[in-house]
Amino acid sequence: MIKEYLLKMKGGAKSPPGVSLIEVLWSWAGAAIGVGICGYLSASYFEPRDLSLIIGSFGASAVLVYGAIKSPLAQPRNLIGGHIIGALIGVACYKLFGATPWMAGAFATSFSIAAMLATKTLHPPAGATALIAVICGKKVHDLGFIYAFIPAGLGALILLIIALLVNNLSKNRKYPEYWL
Questions:
Q1: How far is CA 28 from CA 33, 78, 100, in A?
Q2: Mean of the per-residue pLDDT values of the chain
Q3: DSSP structure string for 72-128
Q4: What share of the chain is helix, strand, coil (3-state, %, to 5)?
Q5: Is pLDDT above 90 for 12?
Q6: Contacting residues for 45 by C-beta, under 8 A, at least 6 apart
Q7: What is the mean pLDDT of residues 144-149?
Q8: Average pLDDT of the residues in 140-163
Q9: Where are the domains of the chain?
Q10: What is the pLDDT of residue 16?
Q11: 170: buried, middle or exposed (CB in 10 Å: 19+, 13-18, 0-12)?
Q12: Is the CB of residue 94 less than 8 Å from the CB of residue 147?
């Protein structure tokens, strides 16, 4: 029984093929523009108003929506829905369990995964969005449930718009695979 369990860790599938230089450049351009716009708008408009439009989990979202565009985890429903669900759950867990941060963080992440699976919006970076709502500090905590919409929802929407524009410029790329 233990041997069978350990043999599962051996793997067995073939490593995926590499990508061409042009694919690398398209992914780079999308990420630079998408994250750059969120960062610029955050610095010039949102931060002076005690808001933000950029969170760390957007870096991981950029990997998916510009570099892994065919992945089910990169599709619009997952990107937007995952971040909003993760943020709402993260804020709720902070409000309920914030006196015990390790518990709030564990619940924020685990409940957001369960909710995303149940709603077909699984987006791994949104697990970080939930955790950020707990661990990021007073500035994020003061946002309360607004955090789900600014930065989580609006930032994800900007990443999506840029993904639609950039990923479809190349004749060899198509995004999204589906909407709902």
A1: 9, 21, 39
A2: 96
A3: GGGSHHHHHHHHHHHHHHHHHHHHHHTTSHHHHHHHHHHHHHHHHHHHT---HHHHH
A4: 75, 0, 25
A5: no
A6: 53
A7: 98
A8: 97
A9: 23-167
A10: 86
A11: middle
A12: no
Consecutive H or E run containing 67? none
Q: Which pLDDT does position 49 carry in this prediction?
A: 94
Q: Give kind and range of the element (H or E) at residue 135.
A: helix 124-135
Cα–Cα distance, 63 to 27 (Å, whole number)? 8
Sign of the torsion angle spanned by Cα atoms 99, 105, 111, 112: positive
DSSP character at residue 9? G
Instruction: State mean pLDDT over 144-156.
Output: 98
Number of other residues whose CB lies within 10 A of the CB of residue 178: 8
Residues 150, 139: contact at Cβ < 8 Å?
Answer: no
What is the DSSP code (8-state) at residue 10? G
Distance CA 75, CA 2 (A): 38
| Distance separating alpha carbons of residues 139 and 160, to the nearest angstrom | 26
